[in-house]
Amino acid sequence: MDMSKDLVAASATPLVLAILAEGDSYGYAIIKRVTELSGGHLQWTDGMLYPVLHRLERQGHVAAKWSAAQNGRRRKYYRITKEGRAQLAAQRQQWKAVDGTLRGIWMEACTI
Amino acid sequence: MTTFADRQLEEQIAQWRTYVRRRPALHGPDVEELEGHLRDQLVALTEAGLAGEEAFLVAVKRMGSLDALSREFARAHSERLWKQLVMAPDAQEPAKTSHAEILVVLSLAVAAALAIKVPALFGLRIDTGEESFYFRNASLFVLPLLTIYFVWKRGLSVASGLWLALPFAAGAVFANVFPFPKGSDTELLTILHLPIALWMAVGFAYVRGRWFADGGRMNFVRFSGELAIYYVLIALGGGVLTGFTMMMFKAIEMNAEWFVGGWLIPCGATGAVIIGSWLVEAKQSVIENMAPVLTRLFTPLFTLLLLVFLATMAWTGSPINVKREVLIGFDLLLAVVVGLVLYAASARDPQAPPDFFDGLQLLLVVSALVVDGVALAAIAARISEFGFTPNRVAALGENLILLVNLAWSAWLYARFLRHRGSFAVLERWQISYLPVYSVWATLVVVMFPPVFGYR
Q1: Torsion angle of alpha carbons B364, B437, B192, B164, nearest 10°?
Q2: Is the CB of A60 less than 8 angstroms away from the CB of B62?
């Protein structure tokens, strides 16, 4: 299934926030989790996750920290903030409304 | 993140890294983060059985097109965009050709230069005692044209352009309906506050009508600072030109004063605003911003001045001598400090950890607050004696507005320095405070003259 670019972009913020609400994580792991959750339907261009994360960091929805990983390299870990959780709740309401509306009209279409 | 034993693979990664680093929108830590991702991906792919080179190709492909990626990075970090115009041309938004832009800019600049001569056709000459008319309306000769430039440049619809005409029409009404006697205080206040009130309308056109979208307001702040600097530079050049005009015509026994005073200075002053704006827009990609550089230079100096002033006052115990200019002087001081904070914020990477300069900023803000507190106390003690005049109320109001801004900024700075909050909060506070200045200026223009009986 090829999903439209706009839909992928719009769902990126709530998805990233929701994954970080499960626990702190880093870029590669977040993408793996997205693929896992969507059963492979939601394919992101890997690089595009990072601007999304940086924008969220800037808006104060997530906080980032560099931590040392093996071999002296370091990795940037992201953590959801209090504002981020509020944002996630707000987005959840909005998606629920969209989802409910679409379901309603599709149910009607089925019964006709 | 692993280092690979496969030397060829490591070489390819190194090549990729150099290639990515060349993108100005991607800074060092971003590249490091992306490289980490690439390595994770490579580990997974080689574990799945792909050979080195194959794995590398797949991993790079999954990372996505570098053009699109650096465009997204530039959008997420618009302050980087400001320094180098890194946006790879977006297929959906064809850039306005510079040829057409030069034509538009030149015609708008000429229009601004001629606009200031229009009232002369109706008998209002600059050189015959009607200066106050020109000063009251100064912003109305040029700011609407500047707004038109941004409406054109940002591709706003005609409808939103017409909405933007409203504040200017209102400005023209309030600048001219009140029966100001010659040299009245309220007229001077209108002259000073109308441009501040209308600057907001220019800002709306500048940010494409999307006042609350990411980064737009901060870019407008940057633009305003750069324009002020360009304008001063152009004015200096204009001064030299004026001097030479006078000197050379004097050498052939002719007096060029009517031309200099009636045409060169007024037309140049209005046209330069348009030209300056265009230069800022065009050059933002080429040179380093000046406003943040000046901020870095003057923050320590102003901090030193305030501290020495406080120390001297404490040592000698001499009170502030409250005179007419003192309140305005301290208003200006606060305005300068707010400007320093604002431009320091505009040039700062909001994600960088606190450093020495941030501490210095806090010291500057706190010492400005203390100095202003002392001055306000001295003024409050004597204000009952003086009574309320329009000037004093305006100055006190401004003082209060700036004081609130700085007090909260100091609190946010202190939180940021103790790692309790992020710098983005301070930046957001500064930009959401911008409309307050405009609203207050509007209030002064609209309410003060009738309330104070046009004194």
Answers
A1: 140
A2: no
